Amino acid sequence: MRVLLAIHHPLTQDMGAPGVTLALGRALRAQGCTVDYYSYSEAYPGELHHTALHGVRFPWKLAAHLTRVARDYDVLDVTTGDAWPWARAGRPGASRRHALVTRSHGLEHTLSERLRGDAREGKLHLSWKYPLYHGGFRLWEVAQTLRLADRSVLLNAEDAAYASERLGIPASKLSVIPHGLGEAFHGLPLPAPLAEGPLRLATVATFIQLKGREDVIAAAVRLHAQGLPFTLTLYGTGTPEPEVRAAFPPHLQSLLRVVPHYAHATLPALLAQEEVILFPSHTEGHGMGLVEAMASGLVPIATPVGVAPSIVHPGRTGFLVPIADVDALVEAVRALAADPSRRYALRRAAQAEVQRLTWPDIASRTRAVYEEVLRMRNASGK
């Protein structure tokens, strides 16, 4: 099977959606598929810095590329919002036997609704530019691609429900397939109980409001005021350390450690001395940081977004707390701090829970979708 994976990002292993695209490609190749990529690297060769304008132009760059090469592929697997110009033009250059699949790394519509909701509540300021593209035209592009594709692959049930109920996409054209867990996170040794001392808390997320930044800060302030000994390390903030530290009160500075960037494969070693992952995100397509932290032996306290409801089982593998509920976040931390034996049992259970998320399995499920779509198109004579 010949597959083209197209994505509106530069391809790099150390970024979320690009990293999982490369992982999916490797897993498909291991199962006998021929896989090529089309990304910013091919659309904008030699350009190292990208802006929103590159995103606006990408669907048209892709359309020109597909017109030249589509006949070489059985499956065109394209990120949402990017294939609509080519599809609306009648899929020029494609062979009769082909499948157009669009893939979401987090549905833009559910993200937009969360952003607008937080803005209405005064938790977030949206630029006047937001409705022009990301909160406007881009949503139209995504909806168009979902309607024109033969099948849409979404990461979670919430996104699939939105696509079906709000955008009118037939449920038969929707498939939910999560991301896999990288090889570096499989088969890690069981976490050893750590020596007595402060509770070791961590986050693995960019330092932005949508990832629960203010909730983490408020919880840290409250826990310190209650006299709970803890440390807090923030991994992958994407924000320079001085800016992250400036967001916390001075009296918490000695408890913080900030790691703005890290090589993806080094994360298990970085997390080896942590115990609890705080993941109070307001919205997620998937949430690889949560999955990888659990694989590294951290017990999760997470909001029910993205993949969390399917892997964080309250009382068995961690805690689920409502979005923006600092009281619940603090209560969960205190419960873990009060019972070391339960904390360690949950760390082991969390690690075991995510081992089933393998890329070979995800590739097999993805190939099954491809094959089903190809059969349906052949049967319909399209």
From TrEMBL:
Q: Which InterPro entries match?
A: Glyco_trans_4-like_N
* Top-level taxon of origin: Bacteria
Keyword Transferase, does the record have it?
A: yes
Q: Where is the Glycosyltransferase subfamily 4-like N-terminal domain?
A: 20-180
Task: Give the record's keywords alphabetically.
Answer: Glycosyltransferase, Transferase
**Gene Ontology terms, MF aspect:** glycosyltransferase activity
Q: What is this protein called?
A: Glycosyltransferase
- Per the UniProt record, the source organism is Corallococcus sicarius
- Organismal lineage: Bacteria, Pseudomonadati, Myxococcota, Myxococcia, Myxococcales
